[in-house]
Design a protein that fits this description.
The protein is of the alpha/beta class. The protein has a single domain, classed as Collagenase (Catalytic Domain) (3-Layer(aba) Sandwich), CATH 3.40.390.10. The strands form 2 sheets. It has a 5-stranded mixed β-sheet. α5 crosses α6. The structure holds zinc ion. The site of zinc ion has 6 residues, from α6.
């Protein structure tokens, strides 16, 4: 449980910020229902030499979870350009360790360094477009007790769920909630269970995701 409890973001962001961040530029279309699933664009960059089959399955897992919110994900496996700034885009780095400045800050403020994921804060204090995920920490938390490493399918499932959680921070401009996809901590069962019913988006969160595209509802 201690290992799992390390999973948290540095700065919980009040969901109340959502309105002030998004309403301005989207006023013209606000309130209009989405006629079809909208697509978030994700750049995924792996520096941890994962098998392509693991990455593919992790993407599929994240896509399945986001489909609950009537949202699609499109993926690019390239990070040659500067990180995206569009509110419907994000970049996910899979890394051996979180970058040292982040670990230093986590250690000094929270006494924790071995988190699974972290969203860089954008100017203004909301979750930005750059996400780091520490693959070894995900492996550790997805492992069965006494096993060194989860098998490929278990790792892919866990990675997909952590990616989804961090993307939810990004696109919802939100900190943690008690239940659902933004629950904290993510425990072993959340990472690996066949049953994903606990990893839901609330109806309010679905509306918020659609507001990123200037529309509401899942029509
Ligand atoms: Zn989180």
């Amino acid at each position: 449980m201690n290992a799992i409890s390390r999973y948290e973001r540095l700065l919980p962001i009040a969901s109340a910020l959502l309105g002030s961040c998004l309403v301005g530029p989207l006023l013209a279309e606000a309130g209009r229902a989405c006629r079809e699933p909208k697509t978030f664009r994700i750049e995924l960059c792996d520096a941890t030499a994962l098998e392509s089959s693991v990455l593919r399955s992790a993407r599929d897992e994240a896509a399945t979870l986001f489909s609950q919110a009537v949202v699609r994900l499109s993926w690019e496996m390239s990070c040659d350009t500067p990180p995206p700034t569009n509110p419907s885009s994000a970049r996910v780095y899979l890394v051996p360790k979180l970058p040292q400045p982040i670990r230093n800050e986590l250690a000094s403020k929270h006494g924790k360094t071995n988190l699974m994921g972290y969203v860089l804060t954008a100017p203004g204090g909301t979750p930005g477009s750059v996400i780091y995920i520490a693959t070894p920490a995900v492996k550790l938390n997805a492992s069965r007790f006494g096993q060194e490493s989860p098998n490929e399918s278990r790792l892919a499932r866990a990675l997909g769920r952590v990616i989804t959680h961090e993307l939810a921070h990004r696109f919802l401009r939100s900190g943690h909630t008690r239940d659902g996809i933004l629950k904290e901590p993510f425990d072993h069962r959340d990472l690996t269970d066949d049953d994903i019913s606990g990893l839901f988006f609330t109806s309010e969160q679905v509306r918020s995701l659609h507001q990123v595209f200037g529309c509401q509802g899942g029509g």
